[in-house]
Amino acid sequence: MSPPLAVESQVQALTELYNSIQNARHYPRDLLKTAIVPNPLPLTPPSLSLYSQQLKDIAFTFRSDAVQSALRAAQESERADGQNIMNHVRRENRKRRRPPSPESPQPYTVIERQSSSFFPVTRDDLTPLKSSELIEYIRQFNKEHSSYKLGIWQGTRSFVKAVKNPAILRFTIKDVLTAYLTVSYTVNDLALLVESVTAFGPRERRLPHSQSEYSVYRMLSQELGRMIHSDPQVGLQKFMTLLCSYENMFTARCDKCQRVLCVEGHVAAVERVWNESNDQWEPRHVSC
Ligand SMILES: [Zn+2]
User: Fold this and answer.
1) What is the 266 CA–ligand 1 centroid distance (Å)?
2) Could you give the CA distance from residue 54 to residue 260 in angstroms, rounded to a whole number?
């Protein structure tokens, strides 16, 4: 059994690695491609060399003794008692842009053990929707929201009577986005949980499990994934309030910098933060 201090530094090493890998998901896709093909295209504009260095830093961190021994310890620990393992990596950690250099030790960041949900707890805490109630819910939802459309997706047919498990829902906001939600339930608990979401441009014709060709929708998919990750038990109704808040995705001002597009990267505000004082989701840039 490792002493607590050693465990703390192992957790920190893995958290930082996880964060830097998450961060790398924002890198230009072409760069990641050329990093794995044997004869990379000659692409070295100065802006890309920064990403290249960061990728090398990640690889370096991955191979470091600290990370390797932490991974071994984690594996042993899981083997000894793998119950109740939950991932509670906080997003404050994720905001860090670069992995720390080995010679500059970082303060240990406390990892929150309680609820880290980004969803409101004060409102909309209805009984989670059961699969048998889904079709009626969709009918009601479409009646109440004329600018949105929700349906069960199944290949070419857009609406079916029977609910599969897992089921894929297709949600559209006219001229703004199309999102595919994978929802499922278990035999012990018939409540529908949102497992994953992929967002696309309104005119993209792609399969639910692929990804958008536009970076803003890929960022949105990641953002929605992060939200689910914060609260894997979130019910469908509550999740839909989040999705509906993207109606003004391309015109909403960020609640931090008050700009529509962020200075860094000129991207719309794809992050949402729940504001308890006015009971709504506030837009924010990922970089703010
Ligand atoms: Zn901003």
Assistant:
1) 10
2) 28
